[in-house]
Amino acid sequence: MTLTTDAVPVGDSAIDADWWRQAVVYQVYPRSFSDANGDGLGDIRGVVQKADYLAGLGVDAVWLSPFYPSELADGGYDVADYRDVDPRLGTLADFDEMIAALHSRGIKVIVDIVPNHSSNRHVLFQAALAAGKGSPERDRYIFRDGLGEHGELPPADWQSCFGGPAWEPVGDGQWYFHFFATEQPDFNWDNPDVHAEFLQTLRFWSDRGVDGFRIDVAHGLSKDLPAALPSQAELDAMDATGGRHPLWDRDAVHEIYREWRQVFDEYDPPRIAVAEAWVATAERRAKYATPDGLGQAFNFDLLEADFDAAQFQRIVADNLAQSEVTGSSSTWVLSNHDVVRHATRYGLAPLNGSRVKQGSHWILAGAPAAQIDLEQGSRRALAATLFLLGLPGSTYLYQGEELGLHEVGDIAPEDRQDPAFFRGADPDRDGLGRDGCRVPLPWTSSGASFGFGAGGAHIPQPGWFAQYAVEAEEADPSSSLNVYRRALALRHELQTVEELEWIRTGCADVLRFARPNGWQVVTNFGTEPFDLGEDAGRLVLSTQPVSGGALPGEATAWIAPAA
Ligand code: GLC
Question: Is residue 77 within 8 Å of 68, Cβ to Cβ?
């Protein structure tokens, strides 16, 4: 099947409904991006101040992680009010100004919607606590009577995803369910009020000009909890691939998204959505990406893959095949706010033969520095990114990856914020938690918080951030930032028809593909140089210098079509 996009270049027209299909989306973690008022916490006006930077980088859209009022029990993913801005981050007027600043530069805006749970400070949860057992207010969340004579024992032994128990007592014999932190009670999506709350929220932001939504924990909303709850061991043993697990990836969840689609389609162009859905198979993921549902789903396969040609080729082939089934476009992700930055991950010494823990999406953090080859990690990260940017589909970049920024491993316990760290999540899964990729960005090589703001940084920055600062990289033509800029500027020439053709290389470590318009991408995953042959004459971009027509190891080249 051949999928064509509108002739209008992505981002250039307000009426291009397909803008998302091959877009580069830049994730802003607002509290760590840019701090305009100098209080140590990034803010909305900080994004406005960096609008020219984002336009110069060449991204098509910005996805903002939560900026809503929040007690920050989980980095803002504990939302106290879905239709406002955290006063520490600004006001709705600042938000409107940010939309205008980005839109006027051709950049779309995606906001994060967190529908699986609210903050325990949310007015609906406070009402549920006040109203008491059996009330309609409690029915909006998941309350159960405790076991034992006075309800003093939890209704089940379930473990929260961040470690520790998943049921919390409220003092009257009842307990509520929270899959994440204690401060994040799960909603009951069988209750119509919950549907109404989120339909109102989607319209609220759409009316303000937001172009789309990233849906947090999209696979978790629908639940089916029997009167006698299963044990954690029984839950773990249940099939999670058939759409009937009590907690995860239930077929019924798609009824919610069909309802949401009707709201998205009230707008012109329709609002878009991308699902965060950690599900068992590519087939299950595809269900989130249908045109009558959310339309697109994150593909996290590469977060669990090594820097390895065979693994990359298999993942690309599988996901392009899936996108033909759904009619959606593929998404490519190497880093986000939940995982170890890919520059660091690719520099980790192999562990049990693999660089990442099998079956884990929160990849090993905090490996001793001696086990990390920073230069190799940086080289591979840039090569992997340029490989992805050449593929059909949309690529999601995480703030700071354009600088080649590494994970910060040595954050003192008292400076950490991630509940996964404090709740003692399984060390094999989370290690030190996720703060290491959430350290405020360095904009200048010196000065207060490396130009993040006039004050400090809410997570301390290490001294070595100076060499990754935007200012330092702008001055170096071969910096990661400048390679990203050139790639993003060229990328629209590659992205026309959503197809690729693999070209045999005769070398197991080298992947080469051509787009229908003649552009070629060659990535050398090995360490031996690879001869580009006569195509070397049409080389326009490479992540490492090419001399004598040979692409060095751990590098990617973009080759222009023959005249
Ligand atoms: C998602 C977010 C993560 C958050 C969790 C709970 O996985 O990406 O940061 O902790 O949901 O909201």
Answer: no
